[in-house]
């Protein structure tokens, strides 16, 4: 009878199915890819939590009977503070020191002191703090990397100009020097963004000059079309500070469209300024 069928049979058949293991492998690969920036922080945190903290704390059990002191806890706390202070900052490093030392007095509480000590030995506080700092560093480095990549695409000279600055900052990121990244990040972002902004504004100025030249050479172009280009240029300028990527793409698109308009205008015979022909050049370009 179906209702008496053991669920263990279904589980065993699932485990023996190769498709299941392919799915499991895919899942872990996706997780590993998503958290790839956290690999160094993860292993560094495990070393702090379970070698310097828990490892020395458990090793100290061999000496407690001789000295009556938590020598391993205190040594681990000092080493953790010295190792991670530059990464997480003085405040977080002091909290790690206190946690590794069981907040100095908690392990001496009668009856529950040993349980508290074991809890803090196994609690991955170093890993948690490093993950927080890695997340903060990503929020600083990712925009800078995007700025630099875009500037490289736009021109070799721009990439070479900012390459030393970017490479030095990238070394800090790859070395997990979180505090230094956070301290320098704002200034670095401003430098790179200033170059982005100047580049987009230069494009807009070039487009405006091209549009004025076309208007002088071909006064018959409809005012509606000129106004539409002008409005888009104005919108592009306003969006630089809030959505620079859209502004950059829009500037590139406008550059192409104005170039196309200029090419079309060159193919047309010159017309006097008082021309009364109301034909739409946009429709003519589409027709051609």
Tell the overall outline.
elongated
- Specify the structural class: mainly alpha
Question: Helix coverage percent of residues?
Answer: over 70%
Mean pLDDT: 79
Q: Biggest sheet: strands, sense, closure?
A: none
User: Gyration radius, to the nearest Å?
Assistant: 32 Å
Q: How large is the count of helical segments?
A: 13
Distance between the termini: 76 Å
User: Which strand-content bin applies to the residues?
Assistant: under 5%
Q: Could you say how many structural domains there are in total?
A: 2
One letter per element, helices H and strands E, the order comes to HHHHHHHHHHHHH
Total count of strands:
0
Question: Which blocks of ≥5 consecutive residues have pLDDT under 50?
Answer: 272-284
In short:
With 288 residues, the protein is mainly alpha-helical. The protein has helices spanning 7-15, 18-34, 39-59, 61-67, 71-88, 90-100, 113-122, 125-154, 156-174, 178-217, 223-239, 244-267, 281-287.
Q: What features would you describe in this structure?
A:
This protein has two domains: 38-123, no CATH class; 137-268, no CATH class. The protein has 288 residues and is an all-alpha fold. The longest helix has 40 residues, at 178-217. Mean pLDDT is 79; it is low at 272-284. The chain has 13 helices and no strands. The chain has helices spanning 7-15, 18-34, 39-59, 61-67, 71-88, 90-100, 113-122, 125-154, 156-174, 178-217, 223-239, 244-267, 281-287.
